[in-house]
Amino acid sequence: MNRLSPIAAALVAAFAAPLSAHAQQATSDNPAVAGQLAPVTVEGKRDDFAPGPTALSKLPADLHDVPQSITVVNKAQMQSQGVASLSDALRNVSGITLGGAEGGQIGNNINLNGFSARTDIYLDGFRDRGQYYRDTFAMEEIEVLMGPSSMLFGRGSTGGIINQVTKKANLKDATEVSASVTTNGLVRTTADYNHKLSDISAMRIEAMAQNGAASTRNQTNVQDFGLAGSYVHGIGTPTEITLSALVQHNHDQPDYGLPPLNGHPVNVDRNTAYGLTSDHTDQDVVSLNAGIKHKISPDVTLRNQTQFNYVRTSAVETAPNTIGTVSASGFTALTGAASALPLSSLYVRAQSHDRDIRDYSIFNQTELSAKFSTGGIKHDFLVGLEVGHDGYDNQAYYRNGSCNGRALTDATTPTSGYADCIPVVNPSYSAAGSSVAEAAGNHQGGTANTIATYFGDTLELNKQFKLVGGLRYDRYVASISNSLNSTNTPAAAKNTALAYANQTVNFFSVRAGAIWQPSSAQSYYVSYGTSFNPSLEQLTGTTGQQNLDPEKNRSYEIGGKWDVAQGLALNAAAFQITKENARSQVSTGVYELQGTVRVNGARAGATGRITRDWQVAANYTYLDAIVTGGAVADTSVGKVPVNTPKHTLTTWTTYDVAPHWQVGGGATYMSQRYATATDTVQVGGYTRWDATVAYTQKAYDIRLNLFNLTNKMYYDALIQSDGGRSVPGSGRTAMLSVNYRM
């Protein structure tokens, strides 16, 4: 019998082990072709939180063979929590914080391990760079790979990557329909239909529609619908072809949060919003994917996959910009560190954030994987080629209005978009500011071409020791342009946008690791990885950045993974991520590669069944993050990076208290954060509690989810622009849902 190490034993004790085994029932499928054994399917309980094999083809399927931390949020966990969006799903991953709608960006803006993951969101292994709000109706699970991983994914991935795994057709006929309603008035329905077409082919269709208020906050109405589908041919044969598509339309009111006052979010009612009733964001999303996988032999597989993504966003939005006073001379912004004026005497200057954005990309990946032996050493080898093209087009518009009869703009801010002034306390929600004439502002464009080749190998030296290594070469060629820029606007001293810029980056990324597996239930590892960030990575840029070398990131990680009994997986790791050559602003329009950002951290997690009836998903992350170097004039040196809490803890557990009855709940804890790079706006820590109770049958579930049980006032997302805005979380909300299976 294999014995656990002292470290593993300590973790087992901490998570209340030893545990009872969970019985699994093996069932046989339909008889196979004569002369072959019928396939055997092993089924556990339908609502298991425990992750299965990773869906990323660049990684081994067994998580024990990956020398990095991976957190998986699967369909069962999302359903028990009432999750409907990518942002809600990622609340289960400690070390992740959310950003809100930005002036130049929109959609899911995420920080991972202290670094922006804006361009590190993936869909079935392909970069999903579009700026949109992602739903989970077509998702099987969300995989989060921690740490720099450019050897696997190319540019970006400083803190890690987030991969959305879509549902795929299979050979089991099934239909699932759900409907839910919240106390906020949000009504939502989804459908999932899978149909076996033949012994080797199947189709699957998913649909979603929702309408109503997304939270207790004012002006958060959504009206969305989506359709996704897949067709798979050749299931169980040497050659498998997969076609899939996702189409989604969003008609939403993004939340721009509250402006700062005296170093904290302004102290008003949590449901206060400063937009206009006419504000909206319309988005059309199209994703098309085609792949073929051919087994040349049992140990050699060739894959080719192409994905096309297109996102069109049309936004008319008004956001709080600055707090000040109003007099006969118009609006005057507050200056200085603090203000003793009563809130009732203050106003918020509102700014229009209108734009029409088109984001698209097309990428192709070809990979050859092979298992073979040389001199007694087993190899799991991968070699690949990736080519792709990204495009970005952003036409901005602005509405220059007035306050108390005085224009809010002058010669130095001709395209500011300052539209109105609104009382800080009890603002009225009207369409008044929308009557201001809209004018075309900056027209921003960008394209990029990528070609990369990579290889990786896992060497099994013996049953206990494995070495992991890989190398990738990327050539990234980008160009951008701005119609309103530093050379042609009256406010040239303030406008640092580039008229035009080209950039070519050639970069080698590496990955290395060692794994010790004293038993099949234990895995210990050390790893090293690198990544890079070109200055034109987001197809935007300001003067001084176009000729800079890419930022360079590296990480060291040591950790362990343990399987306890048959139901619970534990993991723990310590790591350091360092960004060098970080862009540091020396003066207006002048940047140098003098910055250094360092994050020392640790994480631990547990996922799976403690007993047959009790399961848990919990993880904790500690981040000691600091900007350790930069230009002399860089005021962020010595500060904690934006939106990076030192402690985050997420827990969720369910217990089957009786046949057909389940209760559950969990807490999310996050310590204080800063909304600005200079740490001048602080947002306090919080603990939020959620709960669920469900009546379950083989054919249907009836579930009640309770969000923010204690009605805690907390800030969910932080936005660095406009002096540091903070978006309050929703108040206490209940959701009743019915899920029916046929």
TrEMBL record:
<feature type="signal peptide">
    <location>
        <begin position="1"/>
        <end position="23"/>
    </location>
</feature>
<feature type="domain" description="TonB-dependent receptor plug">
    <location>
        <begin position="63"/>
        <end position="161"/>
    </location>
</feature>
<protein>
    <submittedName>
        <fullName>TonB-dependent siderophore receptor</fullName>
    </submittedName>
</protein>
<dbReference type="Pfam" id="PF07715">
    <property type="entry name" value="Plug"/>
</dbReference>
<keyword id="KW-0998">Cell outer membrane</keyword>
<comment type="similarity">
    <text>Belongs to the TonB-dependent receptor family.</text>
</comment>
<keyword id="KW-1134">Transmembrane beta strand</keyword>
<dbReference type="InterPro" id="IPR036942">
    <property type="entry name" value="Beta-barrel_TonB_sf"/>
</dbReference>
<keyword id="KW-0732">Signal</keyword>
<keyword id="KW-0812">Transmembrane</keyword>
<feature type="domain" description="TonB-dependent receptor-like beta-barrel">
    <location>
        <begin position="248"/>
        <end position="709"/>
    </location>
</feature>
<keyword id="KW-0813">Transport</keyword>
<dbReference type="InterPro" id="IPR039426">
    <property type="entry name" value="TonB-dep_rcpt-like"/>
</dbReference>
<dbReference type="InterPro" id="IPR012910">
    <property type="entry name" value="Plug_dom"/>
</dbReference>
<keyword id="KW-0675">Receptor</keyword>
<dbReference type="InterPro" id="IPR010105">
    <property type="entry name" value="TonB_sidphr_rcpt"/>
</dbReference>
<dbReference type="InterPro" id="IPR000531">
    <property type="entry name" value="Beta-barrel_TonB"/>
</dbReference>
<keyword id="KW-0472">Membrane</keyword>
<dbReference type="Pfam" id="PF00593">
    <property type="entry name" value="TonB_dep_Rec_b-barrel"/>
</dbReference>
<dbReference type="InterPro" id="IPR037066">
    <property type="entry name" value="Plug_dom_sf"/>
</dbReference>
<keyword id="KW-0798">TonB box</keyword>
